[in-house]
Amino acid sequence: GDRAAFTDTVLLACGVSALVGAFGSVKGFCFQVVGRRLAFRVRNKLFQGILRQDIAFFDAASTGDLTSRLAWDASAMVAPCQSMLASTLANAAALMGALLLCFLTSWRLSMLAFTTILPITYVTGRYAKWSSRLNSQIYSALGEANTVASEALGNIRTVRAYSTEAMETERYVTHTTTALRSGVKDAVGAAGAFALNNSLDLGGAMLILWYGGMLVLQTSDASEPFTVGKLVTFQLYFNMMQGAYTALTDVVTSFTRAAGAATR
What transmembrane ranges does the database entry give (predicted)? Predict the structure, then answer.
């Protein structure tokens, strides 16, 4: 009887695993198709919008900058949608599930854990806006560099005839240096935001362990004691919620960087 039940359970697990694999492949296919169709529409709409501009727009804009928008900026704008839609939905579901389980385990510890969410959200939001402006500057500088490269390569005979290779290189390096400096600033901001958020996460975890331990000691003689097992269970659920929330904040940061490319 036990052996038959065990065999049935293993077969059920195999069936569920097969279904998970099948649905996973369908999910990957759907998101890949959505991402590629989105990139297709964005590039076509962008090219159509450029062609509809007034002639004065083309007098002020260079060919290299416009082709840079069609190639780099469009790709940077749709890249998060192609790669992160699936992870966003999965982490959102994990966050809601872990949140519910945390409340069911201990509402007191849950309210204590949520005190760190608002500061983390504020820090992430401030960095995301700042990073969006910096990434807009990065893509603008790279577009100018692409303009210089297009002009130099398109008139390479003139460049060689007047021996202006050094000057063209200096112009190109000037724009790429601007992009590099903005990128370094973005890296510094990302490191600072990570340090603050990590400190808040660790502080919240230590606060939960301390308060949970106090609950275990205080309710040891109660009719419904808060046991060590419940504390460990809550910690596991909290870690799950924390990981999902961190992944979602990373997605938000990626989308704000994509917004920096879209603003051009």
Answer: 84-104
Among 99, 101, 106, smallest CA distance to 211 is for: 106
**Angstrom distance (rounded) from CA 64 to CA 182:** 21
- Quickly tell me which residue has 């849950």 as its tokens: 110
* Structural domain harbouring 256: 89-262
Query: Does residue 41 belong to any structural domain of this protein?
Result: no
Tracing tokens 């839609």 back to the chain, one arrives at 85
| Residue 9 in domain | no
Residue among 75, 102, 89 nearest 204 (CA): 102
Residue 191 lies in a domain: yes
> Which residues lie closer than 8 Å to 97 by C-beta, 6 or more apart?
240
Rounded distance between C-alpha atoms, residue 209 and residue 238, angstroms:
11
Other CB atoms within 10 Å distance of the CB of residue 102: 24
Q: How many Cβ atoms sit within 10 Å of the Cβ of residue 127?
A: 22
Q: Indicate which CATH number applies to the domain containing 96.
A: 1.20.1560.10
Taking only the tens of pLDDT, the chain with its 264 residues reads 578 888 888 888 899 888 988 888 887 788 778 878 888 888 888 888 888 888 887 777 777 777 777 776 677 677 666 667 777 878 888 889 888 988 888 888 888 888 888 888 888 888 888 888 888 888 888 888 888 888 888 788 888 888 888 898 999 999 999 999 999 998 999 899 889 988 888 888 888 888 888 888 886 555 567 788 888 888 888 888 888 888 888 777 777 766 665 565
| No. of helices (H) and no. of strands (E), the chain | 9, 0
